[in-house]
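Tokens as discussed.
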């Protein structure tokens, strides 16, 4: 049975004005991005062409990314405003995508708060000390708002270049971030995380409350500095049962999403292997649901009662397939997303680092060249793209 949508903060239609909590020079307030195809689709409007961007579009698949990052550590790249802004804009210039995603990492808020963490090549985020005891949680430092200066500066630089192309803010959801804190590094089975969740629920909620406060401040800073939408990534939420998610994770994701609700900026929620959790993730306060490659958009739309804009969900593995196969699959995704209130094309997960960038550019062109049959034609492509899409 379809559950009702309980979003407490419906978004106004595009062009209806943004929240007074945003500064007057914000792109949604001064009009630069208020009617962009991405923002309109996120607000539940059909657009003449489906807007498209791709998770991990700014990254190792681009030679210009590898060039500017040569010899610079990942977290240093995220915290150098000029470099983070440059990497954020690179895929918009190259591919003509309809949005940039802020270049960051889910552990950046931890580093800004003073937690010892690094990103180790070939491994991923590694903590100096895992957080597993009451003393560990009590020792977690509160984020100083002044520490967010590199983030707000980078967002400002990127937004200035992007013009009418929206920037999407980025953060990891509390469950996923907490799993890194508890495990100390990436994990396949989350043994310590699930043990803490079940054996010490009071400590679990104290830890996730800290993560939610830190994440909310990180997301809010990006939005106020100029992001036109926000995406909360719960990459590992699929490891939870629906019952575990409802009790142990949803309240903390809801706290993050509520912390930016007054801004009127569209909020996207995404996780992998989360088909059974879509309704609960939406009802945590999301305006848009990202859908992974394991759940069709038709299934997702039915589960969500046809009331929620969708994002997704081209299978990233097919980026390495023959073009005819990728094109056929992409057109099927467009057809599956046709009945949703709004549809932003994306991948079901991130761009693999071995992807040929020319394939991504060709994919964007394919999406832009297939208009929504319910709407008349309008120009497609980003104003930063080198050639018309």
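Sequence:
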């Amino acid at each position: 049975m379809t559950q009702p949508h309980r979003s407490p903060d419906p978004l106004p239609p595009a062009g209806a004005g943004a929240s007074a909590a945003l500064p007057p020079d914000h792109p949604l307030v001064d009009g630069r991005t208020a009617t962009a195809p991405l923002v309109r689709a996120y607000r539940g409007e059909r657009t003449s062409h489906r807007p498209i961007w791709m998770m991990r579009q700014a990254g190792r698949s681009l030679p210009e990314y590898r060039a500017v990052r040569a010899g610079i550590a990942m977290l240093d790249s995220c915290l150098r405003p000029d470099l983070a802004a440059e990497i954020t804009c690179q895929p918009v210039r190259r591919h003509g995508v309809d949005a940039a995603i802020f270049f960051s990492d889910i552990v950046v808020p931890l580093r800004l708060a003073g937690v010892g963490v690094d990103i180790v090549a070939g491994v991923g985020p590694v903590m100096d000390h895992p957080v597993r005891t009451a003393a560990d949680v009590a020792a977690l430092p509160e984020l100083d708002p002044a520490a967010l200066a590199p983030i707000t500066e980078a967002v400002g630089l990127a937004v200035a270049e992007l013009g009418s192309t929206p920037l999407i803010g980025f953060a990891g959801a509390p469950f996923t971030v907490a799993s890194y804190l508890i495990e100390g590094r990436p994990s396949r089975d989350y043994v310590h995380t699930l043990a803490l969740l079940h054996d010490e629920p009071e400590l679990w909620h104290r830890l996730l409350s800290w993560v939610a406060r830190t994440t909310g401040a990180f997301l809010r800073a990006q939005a106020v500095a100029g992001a036109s939408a926000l995406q909360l990534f719960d990459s590992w939420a699929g490891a939870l049962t629906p019952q575990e998610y409802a009790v142990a994770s949803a309240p903390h994701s809801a706290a993050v999403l509520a912390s930016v609700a007054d801004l009127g900026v569209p909020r996207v929620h995404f996780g992998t292997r989360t088909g059974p959790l879509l309704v609960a993730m939406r009802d945590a306060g999301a305006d848009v649901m990202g859908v992974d490659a394991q759940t069709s958009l038709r299934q997702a739309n039915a589960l969500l009662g046809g009331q929620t804009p969708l994002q997704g969900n081209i299978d990233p593995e097919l980026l390495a397939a023959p073009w005819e196969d990728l094109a056929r699959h992409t057109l099927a995704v467009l057809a599956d997303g046709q009945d949703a209130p709004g549809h932003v094309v994306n991948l079901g997960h991130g761009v693999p680092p071995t992807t040929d960038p020319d394939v991504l550019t060709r994919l964007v062109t394919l999406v832009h060249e297939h208009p929504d049959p319910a709407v008349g034609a309008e120009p497609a492509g980003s104003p930063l793209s080198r050639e018309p899409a």
